[in-house]
Structures are given as C-alpha cells and as structure tokens.
Amino acid sequence: MQGLEQLFYLHGIGFDYTKYNGEHVYFDHATRVDALRCCGVDTDDESHIAELNFLLDVKPWLEVVDEVTLAEAETGCFSLKVPQSARHSSVLIQIPDLALSTSFALSQAEVCGDYHYNGQIYLDLKVSVGALPAGYFNAQIEGGFGTKTTELWSVPKRCYAIEQDDVKRTGLSLQLYTLRSERNTGVGDFRDLHQVISSAAITHCDFILLNPLHLLFESEPERASPYSPSHRCLINPLYIALDWAVDTLREDFQLSIDEALGSVQIDCSQNYIDYSAVAKAKYAVLTHLFGKCEAVPAVRQALSEFKHDKEQTLSHSELTEREWFMQWLAHCQLGACQLHARQEGMAIGLINDLAVGCAQEGHEFTHNEPLFAKGANVGAPPDPWAEAGQNWGLPALNPIKVKQHNYAYFRSLVRSNMASFGALRIDHVMAIRRLWWCFESQGKQDGCYIYYPFEHLLAILKIESHLNRAMVIGEDLGIVPPEVSAAMSDANLYGNILMYFAKDHLGQFKPVEQYRADTLLMVANHDVAPFSAWWCHTDISLKLDYQLCSEHEAKEMVKAREDDKARLLTWLGLDGTHDAHQLSDAHNIYAAIVKKLAASPSKLLAIQLDDLEQQQLPVNIPGTDREYPNWRRRLAIPAEQTLEQNSHLMKEIKRIREQA
User: What is the largest CA-CA distance in the chain?
Assistant: First the structure.
C-alpha cells in the first residue's frame, strides 16, 4: 500500500462499512478523494502525498517517542521505538512531576512490533516504570539515541466508578429550560434545579440527567438548540437564576443592588418560551450586575481566581470581562447544585450532556477553526428513520489536526463538561472512533466514515474521569462499530438503552433480562415523543398539524404504532388480561413499563420528568427547525408537584431496584 491509498488509511478515510440492513457498502474512490480534500490535502500533488505519508507513517519510528506517549497507569508500561542496534543498551527515564528517575535495560523489554526503513530495523519495545497516578506528565528518555521528551499519559484501565457501583441507581431525566416555577424569569434556571434536587432526593433519586448546558447565541436568542451550541466549554447564561445571583452578591459581597430585578417583566404563563423576551430581560439584568460589581475588590478577586482556574481550558482572549462575569455566576450556581445533590445523599448527582459538535457560526469553531475540515459536516448514514441519511450541519473535526498541542482541544471539552458533575453523558459516543462526514463530491451530496485517534481520545476520557471523579456514559444508539462496544465494556464506559428501540430483528421488544448491566436505561429521550403522546398518537397528529407528513403517511404511522402497542402489551404480559378501558390509560401503562425496567440488570435507570407529568408535547421533533417550536416547550406544572404526585411510583421503583 502506498501513495494515495496509504494516505487514505493514515488520514482515517474510511473504506467500507456495514449498513443497518446488513448490506456491506464500499466507498468509491472519488468520494474518498474528496473527503481527503476537505482535510486540506492536495490529492493531485504526489510530493505532498509522499511527504504526508512519511510524517504519519515513518517519522514516528525515527523519533523514539511521539509528542504524546500512552502508559498503563497500573504498571507504568509504555512503548519506545528504537533502532535494533540499541536493543542491548539502557535508557534513563525521568518524570520530574513525580520525582521519578529509573534506568531500564532494553534487552529486558518485550518486543511488540518492528518496522523496516532504509535498510534499518526499528523495534517497538515495552518498558515499565511502575504504577503511576492518572494524569499527564512530562517525561524525558535518555539513551544512545540522545535525549527525547514526551508528554506521558498515565491511563487507568477503566473510567472512574462511584462507590458501590454495583448498586442499581434511579434518577430523573429533564430539560432544564422546561422547568416551571413562580419565581423564574421565563426559563428554567439553576435555582429551579436546586429545588428539584431536594424533591428528587426525597423520592430516592441518585442522579439528575440534564440537557447540554452549552453556551448558545446571545445576539440570536431564538437559536435554542442545545445540540448546536456556540461553545461547549461555556455555560448558557440564561440558566443563571437572577434572584439567586442578586442574593449571593448582596450577602457575600455586601453589594447594594436592591433594584436589579425591577425591570424583569416576562409572561411566564405560556407553554412555549419566548427566548427573545427572556434574553433581553436576563442579559440586561446581568449587564447591570456586572456594572455594579466590576469595581468591587472582593468580586474582582473571586473572578480573577475563577479565570485562573479556567485558564488551562479557555483562552482569556475568548471572552470579555462581562462574559467572564456571567460564566463565573453560572459556574458558582451549577457547583452549588452539585454540592447540594451530594449533600442530599445522591450517589452521583448531576449528569451533564456533551453535544457531538458545535455550530460553525459560534465561538468554539471561530477560535479553533484550523482544527476543522473545510466543507464537511457531520451526520449519520442512511437508517430506517432517515433513508437519505442525516446532515446535522455541524462542522467536522480534521482527525489529524485534533492531535495538535497534545489533544488540547478535546481535553478541554471533556474537562470543562465534567467539572461540577458526577457523570458525563457523551452524545453519539461513536464519534471518538468514527464520524459520518457529509460533503459535496462530483457536484452532488456525498458522504463516508472518517476515523479518529480512538485510543488517545478514549484515554482522555479515562484520565479526566478519574481527575474529576466523574462517571462516563456514552450514547451508543444507531450503528455502533464492534470495537467501540468492546472498548466501552472494557473501560467501564456505560452505554445507553432506549426501551423504544430495544427490539430484536423481528421488531419484538427485547426481554429486559437481555439488557446490558453497565448502561443508562431510559424509555425515551429528547428526540422521541413523551410516552403519553406516543401511546395516544398525539405525536402523529402533531406532525400532521404542522404538515410534516401527509394524511396517508399519518394513517400508516398510526397502523404501525398500533402494532407496536400490541407488541408492548405482550412484552408487559398485559395482552388479554385487562379490559380496553384499563389499557387505554397511558399513565398506567407507563407505570407498568418503568416497573419492568426497574427489574432489569441496567445499573442506571432514568425516569423522564416529561413522562411523569404525562406531557403530550415533545421538546424536539427531529428533522425540523422552525416548523415546530423545538427546545421551547415548558412543563405544565412545577417539577416538585409532579414528583409528589408520583411519589408512590418512585417508591415502588426503588423497592424493585433493591430486590432485583
């Protein structure tokens, strides 16, 4: 293999894949060439291709160690690539950060591979320096080849696990912005979350799974999707509880800001959030607070310490002082929520959600643009729900450029999104192995899989999970490469099961006994209709109302739904045992479902707050943008009231979980 074919492989350009229906698909040459061009490669320049092949294939064997070297934390074992002539010499390995210095005879090292170049043979040798703590350490290797430096990553075998991680836990799943209260300013905020934590703890919940809290667009408040953010390392300031911020600044910093909330007038009775009105009011108050605070020494000191803490993750030049002030308030309130969750006895507390990408118009892309491919978006290949495939409109990371600065970009994403959380859910976790790229090829839309440095990205998840004491959950729905499933199992990286989609090849719902143990189990998520809507077909009626389907298509969907409901009743063991009236009660059926799921092997069970409320309207209809008001629907009543109404069900779930 040489030339362009070699570069395809070294650059992660996919060759083939197995489609959802079992069909083996091969990507044509033109498609792969255009994918490489998106990475800035001149595919017509043979010398350029040869240079890249040398840099990616040969050069690592000539350098002894790469800029990053992976070590097993348990043994301190890592790889050196040395000429065969050095096989009987020794090396001195020093890790100043750990005050470690040791000599190693290369003759004792295990040979794990070799490489032939220019008449020389290079050996891949495994050396060991003993057990190491998880983290990133500067290391120096001295030998007959000279002195080499590397950043040594000490990688635990498995992601962080909470104490008694074999105990089955139950929690809530909710979209923070949907929370309704008498005191919030039109959108659910961190003080609402604080209150929900108190109520959830009473109902024996060990965690609360949130939507992504990423920064959106202050100047375009109607861009409401948390999965198409401006910056994933920053928090959306609209989640700041203004009254909480005012109280904190008044009490902790002795500021006189009694009139700060006087101008906030928002109609909070509506079903859908008016983001323009909310943003105008909340940003005005936050700007007023900043103006009052920027000259106060105690606030400036606290803000300076916060910025210093975040400087390894974010460049100070990315944000104005006003924006840093808002991030400080948001992080303080979020941290207080997680602390409250742990103090209330929750084993995990808050679970964050990391979106798979960022918007091209946002701060994250602008600040890191050189790391991204040109003209390529990420999406998904054809599947039963989207036969033409999906283009998510998010720019694609170049798999070679993501390695720059020792993977600093990905490390900052993971670290930022684990801070103040007990666990991190990673949307579309397959992205650390491969992503479907959408781009133009020969004048038409095309696509293929691009592979990423899986071993290193997984290593970052393992290291950061231990440094932040946070579990890791991967949303592994859809087409999952077998190597990803195997690695997740080995790494204690939990998967994600949606009961709606847990079916066998005949379309029957799988017995819960077949569910994996290391998973987060849910009936549905934000992309699927709430259960009451699903059971009563109102999600189909809604699509018809918004002209998202024809009358004929709606009738076909209803027919298919009725078949699914019959399968569900069989799965529940209720077919033929209850009369029609009882079976028509959606909440009774839902209660039966979650009780059955409670007995499954899955260690984490998330109960969706929407389903407890018997909500009929979805938060999102996939495939739509402005047709339906996505990411705007509020809950009908306060969450505490819903939890109180369902306290008996939650108590029964706890009992089943303890006995299963």
Answer: 83
Name the 3-class secondary structure at 209. strand
Give, as one character, the DSSP assignment of residue 57: I
User: Mean pLDDT across the stretch 184-208?
Assistant: 97
DSSP single-letter state for residue 56 = I
Statement: residue 341 has pLDDT above 50: yes
> How crowded is the C-beta side of 595, counted as CA atoms within 13 Å?
14
For residue 229, what pLDDT band results from cuts at 50, 70 and 90?
Answer: very high
Question: Band of the pLDDT at 581, cuts 50, 70, 90?
Answer: very low
Residue pointed to by tokens 């943008």: 625
DSSP designation for 509: B
Going from N- to C-terminal start, the domains of the chain cover: 3-59, 74-155
pLDDT in tens, 371-422: 999 999 999 998 776 777 889 999 999 999 999 999 999 999 999 999 999 9
CB 452, CB 399: distance < 8 Å? yes
Residue with tokens 């999965």: 227
Single out the residue of 441, 448, 353, 318 nearest to residue 396, CA to CA.
Answer: 448
Asked if 470 contacts 422 with a C-beta cutoff of 8 angstroms, the reply is yes
Domain 74-155 fold is Immunoglobulin-like (2.60.40)
DSSP 8-state secondary structure symbol assigned to residue 633: B
- Sequence letter at residue 268: C
Any bridge partners for residue 79, and if so which? 126
Please, which residues bridge with residue 82 across strands? Answer: 123
Nearest to 199 by CA among 656, 658, 531, 650: 650
State the pairing for strand pair 604-608/169-173. parallel
- How far is residue 285's CA from residue 127's CA, in Å, rounded to a whole number? 59
pTM beyond cutoff 0.90: yes
The Cα-based distances of 402 to 339, 419, 428 in angstroms read: 34, 22, 18
